């Protein structure tokens, strides 16, 4: 069913057809506020708050239920309510002091780079391809900066805060120094901006829609919170898609303090021999021995 949406803001963007409920809601949001900069800023801020804390809530509840303890990666380290409360306050403060300002700058950037925000949205295939591209780029960005943050000065002065919890929990995902929040945040918002810039240069690239960027940010938030959840279930995504890092991968990072630097996938840690944990160490030694044996045989 299609719905006619007419803008009352004078913007031609919404004087068009919304073909589904989501598009209708999206258009109504912009029409309601009558100020596109305010509408985008508020949308990003609220989506971030609701999706982040909304995703943390089930993990907080699971922490209270002993049945789930068998799925906890570090079963003896259930976070206390006091720890979760302290973490919640610190993250909320950071959202207002560090992330609120850059969020309001997003709409002016969108206008400069011709990021569309009217309806209808692009096809789901285009949106899917763009989001996969952002996942791949962000993962490499995260790997590089996270690895850098584990070097001397950077660790001591910036990243140490995030490692306060050796057994992480959902809320701890964004518990970090402001410099880390900004540097890793560039990996999330920087690639859609770079993509939009390239799309203005190369006509063959489909343009990007603000809804796609919102969707990408939500998925990235879910990935960050879930990887800190501390739980690995038989139905977790990494059980069906082995390249996916999941909670097990990042929990080990917090447990061992070194290795497993990537965010979404296991590829970079595997390729660059930075996987952490006892099993990874055994496999590394085995691979090195195999290589030596092969060399030895060739030399004979
Ligand atoms: Zn780290
Ligand atoms: Zn972490």
Key phrases:
Fatty_acid_hydroxylase, single chain, 300 residues, binds zinc ion, ERG25, Sterol_Desaturase_Related, mainly alpha, oxidoreductase activity, two-stranded antiparallel ribbon, membrane
Task: Explain how this protein is built.
The protein has about 300 residues and is mostly helical. The chain has one domain. The chain has helices at about 20-35, 35-65, 80-105, 105-110, 125-150, 150-155, 180-200, 210-225, 235-240, 245-255, 265-270, 280-300, and strands spanning about 5, 15-20. The chain has a two-stranded antiparallel sheet with strand order 1-2. Helix 5 crosses helix 7 (about 180-200) and helix 5 (about 125-150) packs across helix 8 (about 210-225). The structure holds zinc ion (ZN) (2 copies). One zinc ion binds near residues 162 and 250. One of its GO terms (molecular function) is iron ion binding. One of its GO terms (biological process) is lipid biosynthetic process. This is ERG25.
SSE layout and pairing:
Elements: E1 3-5, E2 16-18, H1 21-33, H2 36-64, H3 81-104, H4 106-112, H5 124-148, H6 152-157, H7 178-201, H8 210-227, H9 237-240, H10 246-256, H11 267-271, H12 278-299
Antiparallel strand pairs: 1-2
Bound molecules: zinc ion (2 copies).
One zinc ion is lined by residues 162, 168, 228, 250, 254.
| Spans of at least 5 consecutive residues with low confidence | 1-8
Helix content: 55-70%
Shape: globular
DSSP strand count: 2
Ligand species: zinc ion
Keywords: Membrane, Transmembrane, Transmembrane helix
Transmembrane segments: 29-47
InterPro entries: Fatty_acid_hydroxylase, Sterol_Desaturase_Related
GO molecular function: iron ion binding; oxidoreductase activity
């Amino acid at each position: 069913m299609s719905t006619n949406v007419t803008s009352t803001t004078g913007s031609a963007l919404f004087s068009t057809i919304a073909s589904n409920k989501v598009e209708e809601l999206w258009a109504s949001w912009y029409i309601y506020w009558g100020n596109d900069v305010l509408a985008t800023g508020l949308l990003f801020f609220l989506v971030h708050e609701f999706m982040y804390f909304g995703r943390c809530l089930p993990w907080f509840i699971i922490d209270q239920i002993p049945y789930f303890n068998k799925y906890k990666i570090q079963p003896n380290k259930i976070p206390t309510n006091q720890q979760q409360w302290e973490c919640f306050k610190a993250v909320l403060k950071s959202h207002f002091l560090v992330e609120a300002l850059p969020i309001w700058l997003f709409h002016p950037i969108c206008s400069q780079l011709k990021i569309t925000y009217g309806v209808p949205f692009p096809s789901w295939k285009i949106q899917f391809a763009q989001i996969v591209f952002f996942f791949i780029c962000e993962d490499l960005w995260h790997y590089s900066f996270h690895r850098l943050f584990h070097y001397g000065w950077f660790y001591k002065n910036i990243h140490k805060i995030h490692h306060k919890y050796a057994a992480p929990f959902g809320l701890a995902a964004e518990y970090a120094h402001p410099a880390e929040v900004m540097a890793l945040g560039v990996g999330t918002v920087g690639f859609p901006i770079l993509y939009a810039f390239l799309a203005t240069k190369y006509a063959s690239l489909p343009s990007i829609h603000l809804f796609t960027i919102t969707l990408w940010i939500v998925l990235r938030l879910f990935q960050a919170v879930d990887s800190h959840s501390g739980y690995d279930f038989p139905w977790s995504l990494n059980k069906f898609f082995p390249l996916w890092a999941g909670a097990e991968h990042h929990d080990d990072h917090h447990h061992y303090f070194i290795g497993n630097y990537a965010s979404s996938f296991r590829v970079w840690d595997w390729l660059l021999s930075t996987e952490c944990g006892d099993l990874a160490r055994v496999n590394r030694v085995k691979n090195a021995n195999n290589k030596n044996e092969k060399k030895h045989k060739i030399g004979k």
